[in-house]
Amino acid sequence: MKLLALLGGLLLAGGLDADAGDIQAGRAAAGMCRTCHGLDGMARIPLAPHIGGEPQAYLEDQLLAFKTGSRHHEMMSIVVSTLSMSQIADVAAWYASHTATAALPKNVDPDAAPDACVSCHGISGIATTPDVPHLAGEANIYLDTQLKAFRSGKRKHEIMTPIAAGLSNEQIREYANWYANSLLDIVANE
């Protein structure tokens, strides 16, 4: 019970200290992440997101959400339950230390980017603020699934839930395809 209170307090306070986290310890701990997310943060399976170069604050918040149960995934909830708070900070520091860049495919008009998304996720899918994930190069099935989870209330977020609630299946597919087609490059911190 005390652990849940501590974790809840950390979530309310905005997560862990953004400067916390040992990158090399995170690299070692990330060995358990590599099957799905790769050691470089480039997802190996379509239902796992790319996490290399994601903002550290975002990664920490998501790991804490899995640890506290406010976000559930059959694999992530189990894996993260074994991590200590310092390991969460370390893993987030490791993946955040990578550099993610994205570009639109040739002959794609940037003005066609989804208006509902670009202010936070950027035109090419690189987040514009530290508490928002990159969407560039994600599998369209992953993006589609997450938007539908926000729309149904299965996944909750103060901004994404109301945005997704107003999206049709066609819009979700269109937005997912837009970011899936963005060309992602992750340079790992080796």
Order of helices and strands: HHHHHHEHHHHE
CATH topology of the largest domain: Cytochrome Bc1 Complex, Chain D, domain 2
Summed over residues and divided by their number, the pLDDT gives a mean of 90
Helical content band? 40-55%
Low-confidence stretches: 1-15
CATH superfamily of the largest domain: Cytochrome c-like domain
CATH architecture term of the largest domain: Orthogonal Bundle
Derived structural class: mainly alpha
Profile the largest sheet: 2 strands, antiparallel
Radius of gyration: 16 Å
Counting DSSP E segments of at least 2 residues, the number of strands comes to: 2
| Coarse shape | globular
Termini gap: 39 Å
* Beta-strand share of residues: 5-15%
Main sheet: which strands, in order across?
Answer: 1-2
Instruction: Count every helix, treating DSSP H or I runs of 4 or more residues as helices.
Output: 10
Tally of domains: 2
CATH class of the largest domain: Mainly Alpha
What does this protein look like?
- By secondary structure, this protein is mostly helical.
- It has two domains: 2-96, Cytochrome c-like domain (Cytochrome Bc1 Complex, Chain D, domain 2, Orthogonal Bundle); 99-187, Orthogonal Bundle (Cytochrome Bc1 Complex, Chain D, domain 2), CATH 1.10.760.
- It has ten helices and two strands.
- The protein has a two-stranded antiparallel sheet with strand order 1-2.
- The relative contact order is 0.16.
Any key phrases for this structure?
2 domains; globular; Cytochrome Bc1 Complex, Chain D, domain 2; 190 residues; 2 strands; mainly alpha
Write the layout of secondary structure elements.
Blueprint: H1 2-12, H2 23-29, H3 34-37, H4 56-68, H5 76-81, H6 85-96, E1 99-103, H7 115-121, H8 140-152, H9 160-165, H10 169-180, E2 183-187
Antiparallel strand pairs: 1-2
